[in-house]
């Protein structure tokens, strides 16, 4: 089976690696995916080519995105099936273009756009231009009139069990995967690390930075041990300070207490706030709202503290670390695992091969 894949995010490619274990030996990838999956085909582009963040950076690459759309449509002619993963701003228009060409290959959307957070009207377009919607959140199924089914959450394939308690050694710092995030967030994390004295401090660095000069990206990292495996670092730690994104959910599913600290570029932040009306940005908090029958991202319940923009200070981070109710967090973490139920890889593979 020739599968046109579009996986632009590092997290999407991790989930894709779990998926290939169940797709069979006759699978061939074409499209956009990580070079580490080159045993299944030669990628048109790497996810690194799409590593932009913020409205301004996206605007600068519009011509590149248009070119990539055209090339993906050309590749779709030879595909048996099409798999789009996350990255809604790129994939919704791509699905529309592919469908307008009346190709035979069905379009599957796995890791659906977060229409419950903003632009809920996009749900109609996704439903119209895709043949099957593979939801990784139970509450997403209700947002579509048909075609959607809950397949499980991919992180439960990668984290099949949680820790037995919150006891661990040392503190983990995860200031993000993009250089702009790191420049804005890591200085506050550095101040926290210095205040922690002789406690072991681990800096989690994205694997694609391994060959680069880390000091040119982070500055002085002499207070830290460096780790390139987020799950290993979180599994061993007693606490974590995390930028945002998938890592927050990883920490929750492992059972490691954490605080979310995030600071966006000022213009991007205010543009985003004009569109997204969420009280929480952390995935664990959003999902915890849903399992408590509250509006996702706007409920009264919370698993962890979030310190955003001007509230992201070393003083606030330290106070959160010292006052955090670790046992309550662990109870909620087990509830979250129960809510998500099971991993998605086997179910998605069966659907694609069906």
Order of helices and strands: EHEHHEHEHEEHEHEHEHEHEHHEHHH
| Average pLDDT rating | 91
The percent range for strand residues is: 5-15%
Q: Helix fraction?
A: 40-55%
Largest sheet: 6 strands, parallel
CATH architecture of the largest domain: 3-Layer(aba) Sandwich
Number of strands: 12
Count of structural domains:
2
Strand order of the largest sheet: 2-1-3-4-5-6
- Write the CATH fold name of the largest domain: Rossmann fold
Q: What is the CATH class designation of the largest domain?
A: Alpha Beta
Q: How far from one another are the termini? A: 11 Å
The coarse silhouette is globular
Query: How would you classify the helix and strand content by structural class?
Result: alpha/beta
Number of helices: 15
Radius of gyration: 20 Å
Give a verbal description of the structure.
This protein folds into 2 domains: 2-150, Rossmann fold (3-Layer(aba) Sandwich), CATH 3.40.50; 171-340, Rossmann fold, CATH 3.40.50. 40% of the residues are buried. It is 42% helix and 14% strand. β3 (81-85), α4 and β4 form a beta-alpha-beta unit. Strands 2-1-3-4-5-6 form a 6-stranded parallel beta sheet, sandwiched between helices. A 6-stranded parallel beta sheet has the order 9-8-7-10-11-12, sandwiched between helices. It is globular. The protein has helices at 10-20, 55-60, 62-76, 88-100, 122-129, 155-158, 179-195, 214-218, 230-236, 246-254, 266-275, 283-291, 314-323, 326-340, 345-353, and strands at 2-7, 28-32, 81-85, 107-110, 132-135, 148-150, 171-174, 201-204, 225-227, 239-242, 258-262, 306-308. α1 (10-20) crosses α15 and α7 packs across α13 (314-323). It comes from Helicobacter fennelliae MRY12-0050.
């Amino acid at each position: 089976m020739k599968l046109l894949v579009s996986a632009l995010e590092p997290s999407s490619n991790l989930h894709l690696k779990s998926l290939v274990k169940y797709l069979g030996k006759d699978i061939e990838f074409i499209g956009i995916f990580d070079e580490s999956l080159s045993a299944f085909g030669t990628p048109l582009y790497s996810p690194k080519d799409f590593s932009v963040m913020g409205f301004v950076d996206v605007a600068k690459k519009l011509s590149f995105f248009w070119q990539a759309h055209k090339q993906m449509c050309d590749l779709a002619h030879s595909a048996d099936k099409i798999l789009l993963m996350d990255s809604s701003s790129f994939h919704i228009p791509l699905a529309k273009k592919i469908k307008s060409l009346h190709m035979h290959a069905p379009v599957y959307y796995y890791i659906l756009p977060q229409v419950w957070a903003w632009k809920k009207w996009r749900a109609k377009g996704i439903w119209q231009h895709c043949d099957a919607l593979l939801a990784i959140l139970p509450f997403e199924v209700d947002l579509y009139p048909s075609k959607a089914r809950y397949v499980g959450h991919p992180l439960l394939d990668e984290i099949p069990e949680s820790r037995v308690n919150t006891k661990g050694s040392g503190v983990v710092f995860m200031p993000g995967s993009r250089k702009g995030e790191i420049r804005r967030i890591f200085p506050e994390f550095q101040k926290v690390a210095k205040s922690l004295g002789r406690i072991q401090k681990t800096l989690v660095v994205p694997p694609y930075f391994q060959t680069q000069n880390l000091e040119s990206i982070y500055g002085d990292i002499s207070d830290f041990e460096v780790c390139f495996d987020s799950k290993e670092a979180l599994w061993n730690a007693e606490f974590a300070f995390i930028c945002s994104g998938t890592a927050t959910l990883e920490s929750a599913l492992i059972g490691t207490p954490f605080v979310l600290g995030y600071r966006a570029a000022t213009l991007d932040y205010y543009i985003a706030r004009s569109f997204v009306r969420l009280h929480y940005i952390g995935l664990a908090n959003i999902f915890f709202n849903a399992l408590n029958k509250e509006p996702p991202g706007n409920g009264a319940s919370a698993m962890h503290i979030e310190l955003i923009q001007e509230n992201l200070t070393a003083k606030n981070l330290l106070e959160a670390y010292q006052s955090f109710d670790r046992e309550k967090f662990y109870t909620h973490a087990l509830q979250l695992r129960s809510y998500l139920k099971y991993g998605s890889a086997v179910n998605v593979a069966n659907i694609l091969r069906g």
